[in-house]
Design a protein that fits this description.
The protein is 37% helix and 14% strand. The chain is an alpha/beta fold. It has 2 domains: 220 residues, 3-Layer(aba) Sandwich (D-Maltodextrin-Binding Protein, domain 2), CATH 3.40.190.10; 128 residues, Periplasmic binding protein-like II (D-Maltodextrin-Binding Protein, domain 2), CATH 3.40.190.10. The strands form 5 sheets. A 5-stranded mixed beta sheet has the order 2-1-3-10-4, with helices on both faces. Strands 7-6-8-5-9 form a 5-stranded mixed beta sheet, sandwiched between helices. β13 and β14 form a beta hairpin. It starts with a helix and ends in a 6-residue tail after the last helix. Bound molecules: calcium ion (CA). Calcium ion (CA) binds next to α8.
Length: 457
């Protein structure tokens, strides 16, 4: 994987030399704890805002204190919401961050296209590979290319596949092969099983396709797929718009709680510690505001560390429940935040914190660091289903090197005093394993594609 990151590494080494010297001077010896104002003579800018007396001095002052970040009302947004509400953005000098709820993924895309200058957003929370599709002009108006940078992963797990109450007793669970005859039979009878996700060709579409295909059900020919906005999940399942829904917490569990369905699978069961959603910004904003970008990242990283502490999850539920954010009672959110899922349809419940959403670290290592190998899986899966042309894999390295800015994540982590042990040394997370025994080796994505029985490519 060394070749994968080599060019980026060379660039980073050259440009971060000055920063490294400042960092050394600033942290002194021994290093001071995070959040302590230190060595004002070396790096504290004279223009330092009085509104942020605790601003980190490691790293230069942000070029702007303002950024407009979009989010969707699901657990994935927690690092952005917590960074805002707990003052972590302000701590690093970003006192004018606007964390703005988006009506749906299409709106987020439209808003980043116009940018904050045009009344939209500078970046925020994204499903993968949306930042790639936007960068390449594949889902934008008139196919305009809006270059974006992927800067951090927001979370792992915390997503699931919910099934409508009308399907109780049909054996629809993690192993979808047990329901294959039933589901394929519906199609043959002219009444196909309808499965929804929140935006096509991204995470939720991939999870439900993977789950169907693992059980021998072809998502393109055996069922009917449709897009439903996150906020309409519960209402649409109640009115019978669809039989299945793939989305982020708390929506699947709400469906169980409201007695309108059950959970067939959690994404933590399909692919433990899988990549979920990401923090990405418009490239022009990042290029213009490199220090502000690192300040945002430091705020997000601190929020992610805070979110991962089990003892903070109750407060986290309280904050997320706010009307500006998820607008759902904290009592509904808290069980899921602790890994307690009522599955329904006579399936055993899950009570395991390891299956809850995680934000900073998992048993697979860093959650926050945006591994290039995981971006490659999303591109490979896009090829699998014919969303992207096959030659995407030939050009993947160039494309990923352009969009994935793990170098900025690393620079921000170092400035924030993140221990070396928590800063990955490789851009590859290595071989990934799925619940059905399939293996994705980022060194050979074609072998993964070849191993899959159901695919378009
Ligand atoms: Ca999600």
């Amino acid at each position: 994987m060394s070749n994968f990151s080599r060019r980026r590494f060379l660039t980073t080494t050259a440009t971060s030399a000055v920063g490294a010297v400042l960092l050394k001077g600033c942290l002194g010896n021994p290093p001071e704890p995070s959040g302590t104002a230190s060595s004002p003579t070396t790096t504290t800018p004279s223009t330092s805002s009085p509104a942020s007396p605790t601003a980190q001095t490691a790293g230069a002052a942000p070029e702007t204190t303002q950024a407009k970040l979009g989010f969707l009302p699901i657990f994935e947004a927690a690092p952005l919401i917590i960074a805002q509400e707990k003052g972590f953005f302000a701590k690093y000098g970003m006192t004018g961050v606007d964390v703005s709820k988006q009506a749906n993924w299409g709106s987020a895309r439209d808003n980043v296209e116009i940018g904050a200058a045009g009344g939209g957003i500078d970046g925020g929370q994204w499903q993968m590979p949306m930042p790639y599709l936007i960068s390449e002009g594949l889902i934008t108006k008139n196919n305009t290319k809006i270059p974006m940078y992927v800067l951090a992963m927001l979370n792992t797990q915390g997503n699931g596949i919910a099934i409508a109450q009308s399907q109780v007793g049909k054996n629809i669970g993690l192993d979808s092969s047990k329901a294959k005859d039933y589901i394929v039979g519906l199609k043959q009878a002219g009444n196909p099983f309808r499965a929804a996700y929140t935006f096509p060709k991204a995470n939720q579409d991939f999870w439900i396709r993977y789950w169907f295909a693992a059980g021998g059900i072809n998502p393109d020919t055996d069922v009917s797929l449709l897009t439903v906005p996150t906020a309409q999940t519960v209402a649409n399942m109640k009115t019978g718009t669809m039989e299945a829904f793939s989305t982020g917490d708390p929506w699947p569990a709400r469906i169980v709680g409201d007695g309108i369905g059950f959970i067939a699978a959690l994404t933590s069961q399909i692919w433990p510690f899988h990549p979920e959603e990401y923090f990405a910004m418009r490239a022009d904003w990042v290029d213009k505001n490199p220090n502000a970008t690192k300040a945002l990242l430091k705020g997000i990283m601190e929020a992610q560390q805070w979110c991962d502490k089990k003892e903070n999850r109750a407060e986290m539920g309280q904050i997320l429940s706010g009307a500006k954010y998820l607008n759902i009672p904290a009592t509904v959110l808290e069980p899921m935040l602790l890994g307690n899922y009522t599955m329904g349809d006579n399936q055993p419940n899950i009570n395991n914190f390891q299956e809850a959403a995680m934000y900073w670290k998992s048993p697979r290592g860093s959650v926050s660091y945006p591994y290039k190998s995981l971006d490659l899986w999303f591109l490979t899966e896009s090829v699998r289903w014919g969303f992207l042309p096959k030659d995407t894999l030939t050009n993947a390295k160039t494309l990923i090197d352009k969009v994935n800015r793990e170098d900025i994540w690393k620079a921000a982590a170092k400035e924030a005093g993140v221990p070396d042990a928590d800063i990955p040394t490789s851009t590859s997370r290595g071989v990934e394993k799925f619940f059905d025994g399939k293996v994705f080796d980022p060194e050979n994505p074609q072998a993964y594609l070849d191993s899959l029985a159901i695919k378009k490519a």
